[in-house]
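User: Sequence in, structure out. Go.
Assistant: Echoing your sequence, followed by the structure tokens.
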Amino acid sequence: MTTSLSTRALGRSDVSAIGLGCMPMSWAYLLGERDDGESVRVIEAALERGVTHLDTALMYGPHHNETLVGRAVRGGRDGVVVASKCGMVVEDAVKRRIRKDGRPETLRTQCEASLGRLGVEAIDLYYLRRVDPDVPVEESWGALAGPVEEGTIRTLGRIEFEAGRAV
């Protein structure tokens, strides 16, 4: 069953106007009731219905969500836009303690690890999540230029930024 959903331009791709945020499958809600098999079935059902934008992040799980999304799209990724996020580090998953880390070396390491967990050659949309107040945003953003030039990031985005203020 494929349903045609309206689309929007996103970088060099068109994506369904309705996307699937995969965070709750690994992070934030009902962790004791997590069911990876059911989560993969939900992702597959969304894809069958025309959803082409899947959103994840390395911090969800932590790391579990990217692996889950990768498992769901492996072998059937044509037309699916996978988005992930970098710039956050989980210090304590149980207490949900996270911190910003926009150091260039961290962002490059996070990108490489995300590619591996997702099982893809390129991340379609890679967000820098929040500004690290200890690192000039130009350095963080610049660190992601290399993967863009190499083709391992197709489009860069940012999330949770405010003009003139680090969030």
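User: And one key feature?
Assistant: The mean pLDDT is 90.
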